[in-house]
UniProtKB/TrEMBL annotation:
Alphabetical list of Pfam families matching this protein: PRD (PF00874)
Taxonomy, superkingdom: Bacteria
Lineage, highest ranks first: Bacteria, Bacillati, Bacillota, Bacilli, Lactobacillales
The protein's name: PRD domain protein EF_0829/AHA_3910
Coiled coil: none
Length: 112
């Protein structure tokens, strides 16, 4: 899967390719340790989100306000993993953790 992840990163045509690769492989290792194995489509969507997340960190663009209650059913474990991934990118809003945790929950099979 690592070769395919590299291909998906290349296909992203990101302006932040090296940073994107670093964050994605950090996330890959972290998720693998937890036995969370996203499929190819989940990786593609996750890569797209992380690329947008890096863009926001560089440009200062912000996410719209989010009601934290909407994310109350996300597992504590997914939120903790999301926070670890966020530590790899500077200048992020804290509500970014909810969006990352959604990807993790989806890969766990907890949501569709």
């Amino acid at each position: 899967m690592e070769t395919r992840i590299n291909e998906l990163i290349s296909e992203q045509n990101s302006n932040y390719g090296e940073k994107l690769k670093q964050v994605i492989f950090f996330a890959h290792d972290l998720l693998q340790q937890e036995e969370i194995l996203p499929d190819e489509l989940q990786w593609q969507i996750f890569i797209n989100h992380v690329d947008a997340m890096i863009f926001r960190s560089v440009t200062g663009e912000t996410l719209p306000e989010m009601d934290e209650e909407l994310f109350a059913e996300l597992s504590k474990e997914s939120i903790e993993l999301a926070l670890k991934i966020m530590e790899q990118v500077e200048n992020l809003q804290q509500n970014e953790r909810f969006l990352l945790a959604l990807h993790i929950e989806n890969a766990r099979g907890n949501i569709n």
